[in-house]
Design brief:
Blueprint lengths: L20 H12 L4 H11 L6 E5 L5 H8 L3 E6 L3 H11 L6 H6 L5 E4 L13 E10 L5 H12 L3 E12 L8 H11 L15 H8 L3 E9 L2 E3 L2 H9 L5 H6 L2 H13 L8 E3 L2 E8 L2
Parallel strand pairs: 1-2, 1-4, 2-3, 4-5
Antiparallel strand pairs: 5-9, 6-9, 7-8
Helix pairs in contact: 1-9, 2-3, 6-8, 7-11, 9-11
Length: 289
């Protein structure tokens, strides 16, 4: 399984990296998204996610976390306003075009995947959400905590009183082997000195976001989420699919980023050619008031 989560920001006014968004979405879905499966599982176990859960997944991507919650019996709704290609893949996963699927979609508990923000998923006739998840980890990009705060401001009103809100973040840099690779993005994008640059996680990132959103902390945990890839090429494709290196691509070019990323990954290459980077991620459970 593979993980990666990073919030995408515009890197530089007027400078947009030339990438194939559909190929990026496939790389995210097939290589990178599953890296955070241990995080999803730990949260779902701790919160006893199941048949009585109504979950709103923020930044749902291609829907793996939604699918895992739905397999436990939860009613799931996912929203994502930044990656329409990922949203389409999530729809294919959760709303397959199979016989009887229209009838299934008409059920009140049928999965929903919405291209847009939390407000676009609001349904006045449905019960309030009992769980809101923001699994895309912060502590990676400059400004990512502010972006999460804005998202929560629109999502929290859709949740019931006492509902769980789960925030995720990168662990301490010294416990995340991927840190050394992500610093390539910082080095190459530094001339931009703006949003979209990698930055190290801070100890109270999640707590500060929860406080600003008016949420009450109710527990936290750490989860080992190693990034494992079949080879250096797969590792590069997976990491590039996160959008974390887009500012670096805009500041230099794709060839330069590919070269330095590949060199950084070789330090984590094992004798059999696979790439292995142990990482630790944090999660915070907070409650609406």
């Amino acid at each position: 399984m593979t993980p990666t989560l990073v919030r995408q920001h515009s890197s530089h006014a007027g400078a947009t990296p030339r990438v194939d968004p559909r190929a990026r979405a496939r790389d995210w879905s097939e290589i990178q998204e599953r890296m955070l499966v241990p995080l999803y599982e730990a949260v779902y176990e701790r919160l006893h996610v199941g048949g009585g859960t109504r979950m709103l997944g923020l930044g749902c991507g291609s829907g793996l976390a939604l699918l895992m919650a739905a397999s436990r019996g939860a009613s799931v709704t996912g929203v994502d306003s930044r990656f329409p290609e990922r949203v389409e893949l999530a729809r294919q996963r959760l709303l397959p075009d199979a016989p009887g699927s229209r009838e299934a979609r008409a059920r009140a508990d049928a999965p929903r995947v919405v291209e847009g923000g939390p407000g676009d998923a609001a349904d006045p006739s449905a019960p309030a959400f009992t769980l809101v998840t923001a699994f895309e980890p912060i502590g990676c990009l400059a400004g990512d905590s502010e972006g999460l705060g804005e998202l929560l401001a629109r999502a929290v009103p859709l949740a019931g009183r006492g509902a769980a809100v789960v925030l995720a973040g990168w662990g301490p840099p010294e416990r995340c082997a991927t840190t050394s690779v992500l610093r390539v993005a910082t080095k190459l994008a530094d001339p931009l000195r703006g949003a979209g640059r990698w930055r190290p996680a801070l100890r109270d990132d999640l707590e500060e976001v929860a406080q600003r959103a008016g949420l009450r902390p109710d527990g936290s945990g750490r989860v080992a989420c190693p990034f494992g890839y079949g080879d250096v090429d797969s590792a590069a494709r997976g990491l590039l699919s996160t959008g974390l290196f887009d500012a670096a691509i805009a500041a230099t070019d794709q060839e330069q980023v590919d070269k330095e990323l590949s060199e950084a990954l070789h330090a984590h290459r094992r004798p059999d050619g696979t790439v292995w980077m142990p990482n630790v991620f944090r999660y915070l459970i907070a409650r609406t008031t």
